[in-house]
Design brief:
Layout lengths: L3 E2 L17 E6 L5 H8 L10 E3 L5 E3 L14 E2 L2 E2 L5 E6 L3 H4 L6 H18 L6 E3 H4 L13 H5 L19 H15 L13 H12 L14
Parallel strand pairs: 1-4, 2-7, 2-8, 3-7
Antiparallel strand pairs: 3-4, 5-6
């Protein structure tokens, strides 16, 4: 697969080994245009970067070599992993995002993303369930790639988490019990930033992160039978 290269200087000096790469993290740029996005991702002032950028025409631009740690994940958690920059490959998709007019991702953009993920997954032996969105690993700070991102399409290619189908709906008498079950299941999947024993004011953000991934037509931050 051929890439155009526009290298960013925003990466950690210490190199990493192939076996340290465990994740692929998908983002949207959330900027007004591709040009503005590239300027941000190469700016020393902003100190952010990614390994790959995919524009809306499907062009893939490599911005940081894979043996280098790009600065894309920030403060983050998934299962036992904390601050995932070191262990992940960051892929940015050009999209204006919620702030500037959230767009559906183009077909060619997603097709190229799938092709890239398949190559990276095979090369670094990345688990399907470790291909995540930015909001999965940083639900209190981030909402990208958002509810328009076609996770179902990716899952058909064995990319991303595949939840087991629940055969029978369960009814719960109290909200506290339903919350306990929901967050217990969320913890098993890999989500963090919540308590299993007490209600936090940030719970809504975590619930929305789950919904943007698995219940994209119902992003309301509330636990109901669909969540359970």
């Amino acid at each position: 697969m051929k890439f155009k290269t526009i290298y960013s200087k925003n990466y950690s000096k210490k190199l990493r080994k192939p076996h340290e790469i465990k994740f692929i993290i998908i983002h949207y740029t959330g900027m007004q245009s591709k040009r503005v996005s590239i300027r941000r991702l190469t700016s020393k002032k902003h100190k952010v970067s990614c390994h790959f950028l995919i524009d809306r025409e499907g062009q893939i631009i490599q911005m940081v070599d894979l043996n280098k740690i790009a600065w894309h994940a920030g403060k983050s958690k998934w299962k036992k992993y904390i601050n995932l920059n070191r262990n992940s490959i960051g892929i940015e998709l050009v999209n204006r995002g919620h702030r500037y007019g959230y767009q559906s991702f183009s077909k060619i953009q997603i097709s190229q993303l799938i092709n890239l993920c398949i190559i990276l997954k095979k090369k670094f032996k990345i688990k399907s369930s470790f291909i995540l969105g930015h909001s999965d690993i940083a639900p209190l700070r981030k909402i990208d790639p958002g509810e328009k991102f076609p996770w179902i399409k990716l899952s058909r290619k064995r990319i991303g988490i595949k939840l087991p189908k629940i055969k029978k709906k369960r009814e719960f008498k109290t909200k506290n019990l339903s919350r306990k079950i929901f967050f217990k299941n969320l913890h098993k999947i890999g989500y963090r930033y919540f308590s299993l024993t007490k209600i936090l004011r940030t719970d809504k953000s975590v619930i929305k992160a789950f919904q943007r991934r698995f219940l994209q037509n119902n992003v309301n931050g509330k636990i109901d039978q669909k969540n359970l």
